[in-house]
Structures are given as C-alpha cells and as structure tokens.
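Field: COMPLEX_INPUT
Field: COMPONENT_COUNT = two
Field: RESIDUE_TOTAL = 620
Field: MODE = joint
Values follow.
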Amino acid sequence: MTDGTPAAPLLEVCEISVRFGALMALSRVSLEVQPGEVVAIIGPNGAGKTTLINCISGFYHPFEGRIRFAGRDRTHLSPPDVAELGIARTFQNVALFKGMSVLDNIMTGRLLKMRGSFVLEALYVGPAKRQEMEHRAFVERIIDFLEIQAIRKTSAGRLPYGLQKRVELARALAAEPKLLLLDEPMAGMNVEEKEDMCRFILDVNQEFGTTIALIEHDMGVVMDISDRVAVLDYGIKIADGKPDEVRQNPAVIDAYLGVTHS
Amino acid sequence: MIYREAGQFKTTYAADQAIFPIAQDRVVVALAIAAAFLVPPLAGSEYWLQAVLIPLLIYSLAAIGLNLLTGYAGQLSLGTGGFMAVGAYAAFKITTAFPQVNIIVVFLVSGLFAAGVGLLFGIPSLRIKGFYLAVATLAAQFFLVWLFNKVAWFSNYASSGTITAPPRTVFGVMVTGPEATAPARYVVALTLVVLFALAAKNLVRGRIGRSWMAIRDRDIAAEIIGVRPLRTKLLAFGISSFYCGVAGAELVFLYLGSAETLAFDITISFLILFMVIIGGLGSILGSFLGAAFIVLVPIFLTNAPHALGLSVPVALQKQVELMIFGGLILFFLIVEPHGLARLWQIAKEKLRLWPFPH
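Field: COMPLEX_OUTPUT
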C-alpha cells in the first residue's frame, strides 16, 4: 500500500464492526497505520469516522474484529489504558479543561509520566517538586513549539476557538504519544489558522516522528498533508491509498457527489 | 503603584510556580499569619476567641476539605457533617482508650478514620454525578449520624449520648477539656488550619490537583489522557473526608467541649457547603473567606443596630438579621457567582494596573 516495506504497522484495525441499535456505524472496517505516517480518514457526514477514532481510543468497543497496537491486541481496553499505550487524541468539539490555565491544561498531558505519593506532594518537597519542574520544562518546549507562550497563564475557557484547538493539540503532544489521533483539527478555522495548524501537524510528524491519523473535511488540506487517505462511507471503507489515487477513485467521487451506480 | 510586579523576574520554573509568585503577596501573607498567631491570643477577648475565631478556623478547615472534593474534583457532597462526626467520635474513642497519646496525633488518626469512611461513601461517585451524587452522600450524612446516635458504644455508654472532650495537653499546655484556655485552643486550631491549608494548596497545584480538575472540567477528556476516574475521585473523597474528620474532632475538642450527634446534623453540611460556594469553588483562600463570611456577618448584623444607636426589639432584630444575611448571600452570588475569592482576584488584577487605566 504505502511503500511496500515489511515494517510492522503501528496500528492495525482488523475488520471491526460497531452497531448502535439497528445502525451499523462501522462494518468490517480495516485500517493499517505504519510508523511515521500521516493517514487521513475522510468521508461524508455520518460515515463512521469519529466512531472509528472512538474505537481506537477505547470509548467504544467493536462487537467483532480486532484492534492491534504495536503488535499487541488491545481491542477491549479502557481509555486510560489506551493512553498508557501511547495513543493521544483531540476532539472534534474542543474538550479542554476550561477552569484551568493553558499551562495546567498542557501539564495534564504529562500526568501519565508523573508518579508520586500524595503525602510527598502535600509537602511539596523532594521528588514531588523536582518532578513538577522537569515536566514544566518539557511542557515549555511544547509551548514554544506551538507558539503559545503569550497565553500560558490564561484560563483555557477564555481563549478564542482557534487557540483552544492549538492548546488541545499541545495537551495531546505533552503525553509524547506514539500515535496521535486528530478529530477534525481544522474544523471551524479560518484560512490562516488552518495553514498554521497544517504546519504544526507536519512539524509534529517530522520533528517528533509521531504517527498521525486525522479526520478532516477540507480536501485541500487532506491532499496536502497526508501520506495516505482512507475513505469511509456508511460505515464501509470504500478506498484506501495515496491521495492522488483516492482522488481518482470513482467510488470516492460517487460517495462525495452522491451519484448512484446504475 | 504599591502592588506592582514590574522588575520581579523569575529565573526558575520553581519561582514561577510558587504559591505566591509576587513578592508583595508573600509579605502580606507572612504578616497576616504572624498577626494571626500573635494578636488574638495576646489581645483578643475570651468572647472573640471562643465564639468567633475558634469556630471560624475549624469551619475553614472543613470548608477546605469540602472544597477539595466539590470545588476541585467536582463531586458534590452533602455528607460533610457525617464525615465530621466520624472524626469527632473517632477522636473521642481513641483518646479515652489511649489517654497517653498526644491529642494532635489523635486528631490526625481520627482524620484517617473519616477518610476511610469517606472512601466507602465515595464509591457511588463512579456511576453517579451531580445532584444524584449529592443525594447519595446525603445517605452518608443520615446513616452516620443515626449510627452514632444508636450505638451507645461510640459515646462510651454515656446515658445522655454526649461525648465530652477530656483534658489533654500539648507540650505541657492544656488544650482540651474544661480547663484549657481559649488562647491555647486557638493556637492549636490555627496551627492545624495553616498547615493543612498549605498541604491542600500543594496538592491542588500539582499532579493530583490537575487530575481532580481534569475530572471536574471534562471527564471524558480526562480519561483519554490517562486519568482513572474511580481512583481519582476516591482519592478526593479520602483526602476531603480526612480534612472534615480533623475539623469534626476539633469542633468537639477545641470549640464545643461536649457534643451530641445533633452538632453534626444536616445543617452543618449545608453550612459548610454555603461557605465553599460563597467563598469560591476551587479556591483555598475562598474556603477561609466563605467561613469568615458565614461566621462574621451574623455577628456584625447582631451588633450593628447597637453600634448605630438604634434600639430594635430583640425578636424583630433576629428576623431582620436572617433576612439581611440571606439577601447578602444572594447579592454576592449574583454579583460574582465564582465567589469571594474571585472578587479578591479581580481586585488584585485591577490593583496591578492602578492608577493607570491600561
């Protein structure tokens, strides 16, 4: 599919199906994500894109099929377990912690890397204090990287939408994920904000080597930044390949333009 | 002009994450704590210490406890009175069984008992949220008070069901029992509340506080970054109940002297919850401000007509007092739903710019 290297895929989704009542949200969908790739998942509204992401991050569990990450089966893990494996995500409608500052929001991304006892932390001495400072230093690197130095101490709820999306990305990055799932990272943004976000996504991929799977509606963006595109329609994967191939694929064109086969 | 942070550069993250990053704040807080330790014991009247300041400190401690749970972790609780009762009865049982144990240690161990009970009643919080959780914690309130009332063992089979603080000393000074002086009891209460407030502040500005606030603000997003809801909520219930338990023990041993279960009924749960809401959810300072508001305003209202030279019939005055008090609570909640702590923060932000408009 991609470049034919035999490297084991980082994420393997094998024929998973999800049903909500009578609705088959996903039927026998498979997806492989190779290490270092940027994969876009596209499709019309209600195609099951977010359901797929929710399965990968442990919110939904498919009633059939398997999900393997880094070679291990992990179909039925809970979201915190998935986070521990090294999968981070952002949400379609920003899910920041509104009562906390931007800095604290990003620091929550480090929670999995922090250890300690509440007694030491109540005293704020020794390892507890040291660990706070180490993680603060790491978070500052991400703040620099995403150019949000000026809003560090601002309450997250007070930020404009575009910046909230960026802070959410920062929080996901703070966890140093192996796989980053982005659910419509550019929804509702203007052209400039979209360009910034594209640049950040590509930089994350190249500088940190993070594998990225993203859902996006803006076809220009998708074609520009992804190595591979998977197309869903009515819970079925109808195409998977390089952006140019997918663009030519008649099934994809039909799904988007609503042409019926005669 | 006085309150300006210009020229105060932080060169380490430690300095930036200090509790009071601005030098003026540090000075004011240090002075306030020094004054709190020195002035009232030396200059305060018996009435002020016994009837105002000691309960104020104890309620502050309980309010900090509830604020950790409700304000930081977002779990609404009406069981405060019950958890305080656990602390009080545990302290009574421990100190009558082991009279030689230092009473401060007894307070802390009673807090642990309350924490254990809090953990137990926190388990439903995994499944239920908001008002429904409040109702579940209400069960804790009623059950615990009923238990201490019903089982005579808890009050050492006293015929009246009353527990009385026996005389105990700390460093040779009598701090509980009928012979303990008000200043001695005041200093013990103040020391405990200062240390516990500091500990609470340290908790909420670090790893644990962030996981609490994450659960409070967006539990789904919290899970996705690896916060385990049950563990996090239970920790909040445990630590919160520990604070409430210590406060409950203090309430009997340092303030009331002797008490029945009536002292821990639902009224006190509501009282502490009001303190937290008026003071500011999610603020340690707010816990003190809220307790001060609830304790001081009625006293002020009682004395105001006299100070103004008005003679009001006692019965009428009591009614008016309640009406004004209720009105003030409404006023503050409308003006600033985030509590007195938020008002204080806004005042500080304005003061940073003053006297310049921008």
